[in-house]
Amino acid sequence: MREQIIFNNLILGWFILAAVIFILLFFFTAPYGRHSRNNWGPTVENKTGWLVMEAPAPLIFAFFFLLGHNTVTVAVIVLLIMWEAHYIHRAFIYPFSLRGQTRQMPMVVVALAFVFNIMNGYLNGRYIFTLSEGYTNDWLVDARFIAGLVLFIAGFVINRRADLALRKLREPSESDYKIPYGGMYRWISCPNYLGEILTWTGWAVATWSLPGLAFAVWTIANLVPRAKAHHSWYHEHFASYPPERKALVPLLW
Q1: How far apart are CA 125 and CA 119, in angstroms?
Q2: pTM of the model
Q3: Do the beta carbons of residue 164 and residue 44 sit within 8 Å?
Q4: Would 188 be classed as within a structural domain?
Q5: How big is the CA angle at 229 (ends 56 and 190), to the nearest 5 degrees?
Q6: Which helix (H) or strand (E) holds 155?
Q7: Cα–Cα distances in Å, from 183 out to 32, 53, 117, 190?
Q8: Which helix (H) or strand (E) covers residue 83, if one does?
Q9: Which domain holds residue 27?
Q10: How many structural domains does the chain have?
C-alpha cells in the first residue's frame, strides 16, 4: 500500500513535470544533433551517449518483469515484446547505425535522459508486472489493445523507415546535413518524431494505464517542440527546402 501511494504521487508529479518541460522546450532546444552548442559543459561521443542514456529503459523494464507478481500471460509477453522491440533497437542498435563523422553530446543531456528512462522504465514496468490488476489473455481481443497495437506498429514502422532514410543521406565519412526525400518526408520534416509519438500513444492505449499515458504525454512534450525547431532549422539552412512540407503532421502543422 505504501508503494502504491508513492507510485501515484510520482505519476502526478510526472505529468506536471512533462507540462513544464513542454513549455520550456519551445524556448530552449536541447543541445544535441543539429542543435549542438559548445556552452553546455563536458561532452561524450554521441554513440556512447545514446547507449548510456537509452539502456536503462529495456534493462529496468525486463528487471521488473522478472520480479513481477502478476500472472505471466500471453498478453503480458506481448507488452514486454513491444517495449523491448523499441528499446533494444534504440539503445543497442541505433547508436551504431549512425553515419558520418563522430559528434559530441553534452553529458548533461545524457544524464537527464538517463534519469528519465530509469523513471519511465520503473513506472511502466512496475505497474504492468506488479501494481496493475494484471492483463489476462482476454485483453488480446479487447478493442483498446487492438487499436493500441495497430498504432504502436504503425509508429514503429514510420520511425524506422524515417531513420533509415536519414542514414542513407550520408556516406560513412560525411558529416553534413542534407534534405531528406521520399516516404513521409514528402509531407513533413520529422516523420521519425511522428512515428515515435504514434508508438507511445499506441502503448498508452494498449496498456490503458496512467504510466502509459504519462509516457505518451512526455513523448509529445519532448518531440513537438523539437519538431518545430527542426523544421525552422531546415528552412534557415536550405534555401531550396520544400515549402509545402509541414513540421510534424501532414497538411496541418
Answers
A1: 10
A2: 0.95
A3: no
A4: yes
A5: 70
A6: helix 143-168
A7: 25, 29, 30, 11
A8: helix 74-92
A9: 2-237
A10: 1
Give the tens place of pLDDT for each residue, 178-218: 999 999 999 999 999 999 999 999 999 999 999 999 999 99
User: How many degrees, rounded to 5, is the angle at CA 46 between CA 45 and CA 48?
Assistant: 70
Q: With respect to residue 144, please indicate whether it lies within any of the assigned structural domains.
A: yes
Residue 131 lies in a domain: yes
- pLDDT at res. 228: 97
Three-state DSSP at 102 gives coil
Cβ atoms within 10 Å, residue 9: 10
Q: Average pLDDT, stretch 141-145?
A: 98
Structural contact between residues 42 and 107, judged by C-beta atoms closer than 8 angstroms: yes
104 vs 196, residue with greater confidence: 196
Residue 111 lies in a domain: yes
Q: Select from 162, 69, 65 the least CA-distant residue to 122.
A: 65
